[in-house]
């Protein structure tokens, strides 16, 4: 494996693995709480922070983080207060943030940032310092999730029950969205805002069908994300492709394969059920399973 | 929405709350649970404000089909019942919590489904899981919101039998549309329609059912019919 000799490749792999872990945890929470659209909104609105940071010559990471945190808190408040139009308002913030960022970059004298590198990221040019920050974030997010796991689980699964039991639902929700805002910025720097969404949704979505617990879903999604990232990186190296896009393509293939697999298993299960009924052998299990299927 | 409501749930009571949609049944439940506060008057749960002793009330939600795809097993849903961020109850170890959960699931004939995912169960099984969750804190009062909405007739009879067994240790307040089945099992009935009319057991006799059946045209609004059609002495009832 000669590609591992290059330092940029070692950094890219480390960044990919860290991203996979962070996205595995936060992505599972995003999927089960059905806030994919909201995370897309944060990711795109964060571009406003990038523009702002360029214009005022702030450190990009800090500027983007502040902007993204503000945007995510706004979206969290909107989803709680104006639930029925939340998606519309998030869509508006999404577009506004991005337009604002582009205009700020336009207004920045003599500066031309490549928008593409923020859309698809530049995992092959991740500096060591970013890696350290990502590692810190990974520890922070994993720790916070572990400490508040019970509460987060209750809020995600049955908000009403959590509220009755005195779990500070609103505080947990805002905390979750804030964590999401930080994650998105952190990961955008490396893999771009399009891949953030792909890595946060595809592995958790696949794992959700097989996991027995939210924690299991997080671990599985992290592993799956790591596999996708490594495969994508290898393909991008081998065939000279854009790394971010290659990783998304691999994840997309995984997504399609999981759908196909699900289709196949459900067809064979139905066939077996039918056979059991006509044989009269499956009388014990078939009716209950059928009623299950009907109710589900 | 609700006004002039005055009633008491005694220990080991079995009370049905019936009434038309929009009559305030859910509001009444939310008041008792402490999710909303009354504009006027007082609600006391075991002598304290509602919500303060929330583990003393077990709540079984109406919709047992929430988050069916959520990766969670029956056991983990039941263990959620131990949630107690206010530290109202003495701490017990994880193993003890697990043991308690298994015991309750066993009592509800769900021992074989402990490690099944919640989405793989039927509506009735899922409901038992939610009941088990509400029993984890050994509540004094069990609140059930339209519990038989997703169960067939045979299942409903079984379900009320189960509630009757549970009623030996815990007071039960059940919101229901189905007066026919409710009247066979509960001790008292509260008709909620803007106000609250309390009928103690003695009132739950043939008279009442007859009134109900004869007015089947107004089926949608049974409670209203009963509340209006009840003889005066029954309406004022004996307040517990």
Short structural summary:
The complex is a heterodimer of chains A (about 300) and B (about 240). By secondary structure, chain A is mainly alpha-helical.
Descriptive overview:
The complex is a heterodimer of chains A (296) and B (240). Chain A is built from twelve helices and no strands. Chain A is mainly alpha-helical and 296 residues long. Chain A has a single domain, classed as Orthogonal Bundle (ABC transporter involved in vitamin B12 uptake, BtuC), CATH 1.10.3470.10. In chain A, α2 (36-56) crosses α9 (169-208). The longest helix of chain A has 40 residues, at 169-208. Helices cover 35% and strands 12% of the residues of chain B. Chain B has a six-stranded mixed beta sheet, with helices on both faces. Mean pLDDT of chain B is 77; it is low at 210-240. Chain B folds into two domains: 1-46 and 140-240, 3-Layer(aba) Sandwich (Rossmann fold), CATH 3.40.50; 66-138, no CATH class. The A-B interface holds A 32, 150-151, 153-154, 156-158, 160-168, 207-209, 211-214, 216-217, 288, 291-292, 295-296 and B 33-35, 51, 54-55, 57, 59, 61, 66-73, 76-77, 80, 83-86, 115, 117, 119-123, 133, 150.
């Amino acid at each position: 494996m000669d590609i591992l000799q290059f330092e940029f490749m070692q950094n890219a792999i480390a960044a990919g693995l860290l991203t996979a872990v962070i996205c595995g945890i936060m992505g599972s929470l995003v999927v089960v709480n059905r806030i994919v659209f909201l995370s897309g909104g944060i990711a795109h609105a964060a571009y406003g922070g990038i523009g702002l940071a360029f214009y005022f010559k702030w450190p990009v990471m800090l500027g983007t983080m502040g902007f993204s945190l503000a945007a995510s808190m706004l979206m969290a408040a909107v989803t709680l207060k104006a639930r029925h139009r939340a998606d519309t308002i998030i869509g508006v913030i999404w577009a506004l943030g991005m337009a604002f960022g582009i205009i700020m970059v336009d207004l920045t004298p003599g500066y031309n940032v490549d928008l593409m590198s923020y859309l698809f990221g530049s995992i092959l040019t991740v500096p060591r310092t970013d890696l350290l920050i990502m590692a810190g974030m990974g520890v922070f997010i994993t720790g916070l999730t572990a400490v508040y796991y019970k509460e987060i689980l209750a809020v995600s699964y049955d908000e009403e029950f959590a509220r009755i039991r005195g779990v500070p639902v609103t505080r947990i929700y805002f905390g979750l969205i804030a964590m999401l805002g930080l994650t998105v910025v952190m990961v955008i720097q490396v893999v771009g805002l399009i891949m953030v969404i792909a890595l946060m949704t595809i592995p958790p979505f696949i794992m959700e069908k097989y996991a027995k617990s939210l924690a299991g879903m997080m671990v599985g999604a992290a592993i799956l994300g790591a596999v996708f990232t490594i495969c994508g990186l290898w393909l991008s190296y081998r065939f000279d492709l854009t790394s971010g896009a290659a990783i998304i393509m691999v994840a997309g293939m995984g997504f399609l394969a999981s759908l196909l697999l699900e289709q196949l298993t459900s067809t064979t299960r139905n066939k077996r059920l039918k056979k059991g009924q006509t044989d009269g052998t499956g009388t014990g299990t078939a009716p209950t399973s059928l009623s299950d299927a009907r109710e589900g | 929405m609700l006004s002039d409501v005055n009633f008491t749930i005694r220990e080991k009571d079995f009370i049905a709350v019936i009434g038309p949609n929009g009559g305030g049944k859910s509001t009444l439940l939310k008041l008792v649970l402490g999710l909303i506060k009354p504009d006027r008057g007082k609600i006391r749960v075991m002598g304290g404000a509602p919500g303060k002793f929330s583990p003393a009330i077990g709540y079984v939600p109406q919709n047992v089909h929430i988050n069916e795809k959520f990766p969670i097993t029956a056991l983990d849903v039941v263990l959620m019942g131990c949630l107690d961020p206010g530290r109202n109850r003495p701490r017990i170890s994880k193993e003890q919590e697990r043991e308690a959960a298994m015991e309750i699931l066993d009592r509800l004939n769900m021992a074989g489904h402990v490690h099944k995912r919640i989405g793989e169960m039927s509506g009735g099984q899922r409901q038992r899981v939610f009941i088990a969750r509400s029993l984890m804190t050994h509540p004094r009062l069990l609140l059930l919101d339209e519990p038989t909405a997703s169960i067939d007739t045979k299942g409903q009879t079984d379900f009320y039998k189960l509630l009757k067994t549970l009623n030996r240790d815990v007071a039960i307040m059940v919101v229901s549309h189905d007066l026919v089945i409710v009247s066979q099992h509960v001790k008292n009935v509260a008709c909620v329609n803007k106000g609250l009319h309390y009928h103690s057991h003695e009132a739950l006799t043939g008279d009442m059912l007859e009134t109900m059946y004869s007015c089947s045209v107004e089926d949608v609004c049974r409670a209203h019919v009963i509340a209006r059609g009840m003889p005066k002495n029954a309406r004022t009832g004996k307040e517990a």
